[in-house]
Amino acid sequence: MRIALVQQRASDDREANRRRGLGAVSRAADEGARVICFAELAFEPFYPQEPATPEGLERAEPVPGPTTEAFAQRAADLGVVIVLNLFERDGDHTYDCSPVIDANGTLLGGTRMVHITDYPGFHERGYYRPGDRGAPVYDTAFGQVGVAICYDRHYPELWCSGLQSLAG
User: Fold this and answer.
1) What is the rounded CA–CA span in Å between residue 141 and residue 79?
2) Closest Cα partner for 129 from 99, 96, 155?
3) Digit-coded pLDDT (tens) for 85-131
4) Which residues pair with 56 in a beta bridge?
5) Domain housing 127
6) Cα 101 from Cα 121, distance rounded (Å)
7) CATH no. for residue 41?
8) Strands 33-38 and 81-83: what pairing?
9) Residue 84, Cβ density class (10 Å: 0-12 exposed, 13-18 middle, ≥19 buried)
10) C-alpha to C-alpha distance for 80 and 130, rounded to whole angstroms
11) pTM higher than 0.85
């Protein structure tokens, strides 16, 4: 199975970033990718470089929402699995979230980053609440997929909980 990893420059124009990402999905699928994953905040500048402001927090979007809907349609059209990463708004809270979309366009869920760091250039605690979903494993058309976001990769308990999910 071919997996594509998309890393793209993100401008302040979210819609242009989405269009660029949708194009990347089409190119990856044309080259045989079945699972297509995006880097952290692929459709936004990396806001946490600077401390959070109320205006910055307004940039968060719901899941499902405009980005997941556009990519769900593309996933269904091309028959690919897509793993996004978004600045998510859920009520009064914001998260670093990776929605997983199956090859039929179904939003399977979203993993939220659990371990939130804070140091110069990474002021994430002002933007993100710690994830409240653990480490789900998603059953996709091309196999089981788990997601670790950014700083979570440093914590083995996240991986262990995902392995426990696989063991059932």
Assistant:
1) 9
2) 96
3) 999 999 999 999 999 999 999 999 999 999 998 999 899 999 999 99
4) none
5) 2-167
6) 30
7) 3.60.110.10
8) parallel
9) buried
10) 29
11) yes
